[in-house]
Structures are given as C-alpha cells and as structure tokens.
Amino acid sequence: MLRKVIQIKPEIFRQIKPLCRHLTIQADPKNTEAITLSDGCVKRLKEIREENGRLRVVVTNGGCSGFQYLFNLDKNVNEDDRIFEKDGAQVIVDQMSLDLIKGSIIDFREEMIRSSFHVVGNPRAEMGCSCGVSFSIKE
Amino acid sequence: MQILPRIFRQNIINKNLYRLYTNKSTLQACIECAPLLERSLLRISGPDAATFLQGLITNDINTTEPASYAMLLNPKGRILYDILLYKNRNDDEEYYLLECDVRVNTAIENHCKFYKLRSKVDIVNVDQELAVWWAKYNDRESLAFKNEPILRTKDPRLQKLGERIIIPRHKNLSEYAQNLINVNYQEYVDDRMKLGICEGVSEVITGESLPLEYNLDYLDGVKFDKGCYLGQELTARTYHTGVIRKRLMPVIFLNPIDDNAAFLGSTVLNDKNKNCGKLRALSGKYGVALLRIADSLSGLLSVKTTNNTEVTLTASKPLWWPQNN
C-alpha cells in the first residue's frame, strides 16, 4: 500500500508542476500599459506560429460576470491593433481590449483538463465565475 | 399629500360623467387606459442586438415574442433594474424596445454601453418619441384598434396586468381605438399593488434585492436553461439548491395610509413581534412587502414608522402563485 503511494508520487508532481509555474511569473512593474508574454506562451506560439500567424487576444461581452477572453490565431493586423513581442513570438491586442487587460500576462498552461492560453494577473479584473470563463471589471 | 385623494375623486367623477354620457351597452365594453409616464423606452437594434441582450438579461431573448419580463443583474447576482422587453420590426430590420423606469433610463443606457465593447449594437433613448400605455379590459377581444399602434401585447408578467401599447409620444391612445376612457396612472399602480407586483427603482431597490425574492420565477422573467448571463451564477444556484424563504407579497392595511414616504422601507413585525420583512410599495389601502413567507401568514402584521405611528396590516399569498407553494 505504502509502496504504491510512493510510486505514484513523482507522477503527481509532474502534473502539479505546470499548474504552479504560472504563479512565479511577474508582470513587468514598469510597464502597466503593456502585455507581458510568459516563457510558456512564447514556446507554444513558436510551435504553432508557422501555419497560423499571430495570437490575437480579444475581450468580449458574455459569461456570468460580463466579460470574457477569446484567443485565436490571426494573420491580419488592423489599424487599432497593438503588437507585443517577446523572442519572436507575437500577440495582437486591439485598443478596446487592451484597455481591459493592460498590465496582464499571457500564459500557456498545460493542465489535465485542457491546455490553453490564459490571461493571468489582470489588474482590472475583479472576480471570475466558477467556470473561469468570464470576469468582471473594477469600476 | 392632499393631491392623491383629490385625483382619486376626480377619477371617480370622470368615470361617472362618462357613464352618464354613454349608454349601457358601450359601458360594458369600456376599456380603461392610461399613459405610463414613469416608464421610458430604449431602442436596441443592430445585427448583434439579440446576442448582446442575451448576455445581460435573465430571460431568454428567443422567447421574446413579442414581449418578455426580465431583470438586469450585477455580477454578484443582485437586481440592478427590472425591465420589459419588446421585439418589433420595421421595414428592414428587427429591433428591441426596452421598457424601464424613467429615472434610470440613462443608467441602463450606460450599463448597456459598458458591456457593449465591439458588438454591433445601437442603443438609443427614444423617450421623447415613444410612450408606453396601459389598458385594462375584461375581454381582450373588445380592444379593437382602428389604427394599428407601433406595438401591442399582453403584459408578459400576468394577464391581470392588462395590455401594454406603444404609440408615438405626442398622441393619445383614444385616437387609436374606440371605447377607451383615460384614467389616472394611479389605477395601474393600484392594480399592481393588489396583485403584489413591484416595478421601478423606488420599489425594486438597485443593488440590494435578489431576483427570485421578487418572484421573477413565478412571473416568467427568468429561464434556467438559456446559458450564461450577467449574474446568472447566484440566481441559478439559489433556484436549484436553495429554498426561497422571502418573497414579495401583497398586503392590505386596515386603515388607508396617506403618508407613503414615512412607511416605505419600514420593518414589518408579525403578531409575535418578530421581524418578518420590509414594506416595499404602497398606495392607499394596498401595498407590497418583501416577507418571510413562513412567519407572515399566521396573523396580523404591524408596521411602525420613525415617528412611532403604528398600523396594522395582513399579508396573503396571491392567487397567481403556483398552487404548491
């Protein structure tokens, strides 16, 4: 019995590690107007970039708390877009969405339930709904 | 404070005069109507209008055919505003009209614009162009229009609340149909009180009240299978896991009240002197109170004002509530 527990222990650690990783990323304190890309995000973007261009982050209305994040890959850049770059990986955010997420970090998390991009540490987000899709804005 | 009884008297005189001038057969088909001056309209149009509203209101936008009752909630699940929503179309496009308390039409406009972001939605205050009228009849068939109004529909909450009609602001409803008699707005308020229905920001307190306590489920104002909307989480959780112990109920005062302001919001005590709720609306002899159902039906209730006047009242379960409650 005890042996079994010990045996699966490293397995658990391997799964928990990526979950904890995002906690150690800090947004650049000097740049609250910008979006920071985490290393995980850069790595993932480089993997998928060849075929689909840049990652676009959009804030839309919806969800239980009023606002939600949408991620998609986009080759086009519009007039009101801003591009954030780190080590060759690029993220596009339009001006309206940027007002709601500036100062946050874009991360890529590999979790058991799903692996996906996340907006982490948004200074303007107040609370999320329990499904984690939406958030509300501090007035 | 002398104004209200005077309006009442004037109203009775008007009705009696009308009776004198009309013969009995037309009197039976006579329909009372009044402009709802405390209500205002916002026009919401554009290709994303339905999706946009679906994310904000408690009711399902797809069941708005042509009207529905709903509320706008804050992210924590408290009521911001109670609204009625109408769906209409003109030549080339479908649009929605949002009926709300006139005192908060700008607040609702801003609320919508805050959540609009990039949605292709136009939100316009049409208070100056359109007006909401109320008509009360025994038989809906008797309300026949010679000119078609912009929109007419049964009140989506309860049949007893009559008809809602939208016409241009500068017109009188009596130009649209025969046998209509203009009555005072107060008649509509009294009807609401008798049924136990609150409406508008002075009765439905912004940011405090919970939608199910305001009978939103009984009044067909919320759908639990429509997906996410602002404030959905608490509302759905309360409905599925909890019991709603407090609800709005109609109350009758043993003596009519003439000083509404002194009583509004006062605590209601039951015969065992236990606090069982708050008075939310009143008009003369009738009122609506948010009461703990189990504590308030056993006997006489009382309300005390700040200047120590005490009045006695009774509460009852309205007939339109589902039978098993």
TrEMBL record, chain A:
It is found in: Mitochondrion. Residues 35-132 form the Core domain. One of its GO terms (cellular component) is mitochondrion. Belongs to the HesB/IscA family. Heterotetramer; forms a dimer of dimers with IBA57. Interacts with [2Fe-2S]-ISCA2 forming the heterodimer [2Fe- 2S]-ISCA2-IBA57 complex; [2Fe-2S] cluster binding is absolutely required to promote the complex formation. Keywords: Iron, Metal-binding, Mitochondrion. InterPro entries: ATAP, ATAP_core_dom, HesB-like_dom_sf. Involved in the maturation of mitochondrial 4Fe-4S proteins functioning late in the iron-sulfur cluster assembly pathway. May be involved in the binding of an intermediate of Fe/S cluster assembly. PANTHER family: IRON-SULFUR CLUSTER ASSEMBLY 2 HOMOLOG, MITOCHONDRIAL. It comes from the Eukaryota. One of its GO terms (molecular function) is 4 iron, 4 sulfur cluster binding. This is Iron-sulfur cluster assembly 2 homolog, mitochondrial. GO terms for biological process: iron-sulfur cluster assembly; protein maturation. The keyword Ion transport does not apply.
Automatic annotation (TrEMBL), chain B:
InterPro entries: CAF17_C, GCVT_N, TrmE/GcvT-like, YgfZ/GCV_T_CS, YgfZ/GcvT. GO terms for cellular component: mitochondrial matrix. NCBIfam families: ygfZ_signature (TIGR03317). The keyword Ribonucleoprotein does not apply. Keywords: Mitochondrion, Transit peptide. Residues 42-131 form the GCVT N-terminal domain. It is found in: Mitochondrion. Pfam families: Beta-barrel_CAF17_C (PF25455), GCV_T (PF01571). Residues 245-323 form the CAF17 C-terminal domain. This is Uncharacterized protein. One of its GO terms (biological process) is iron-sulfur cluster assembly.
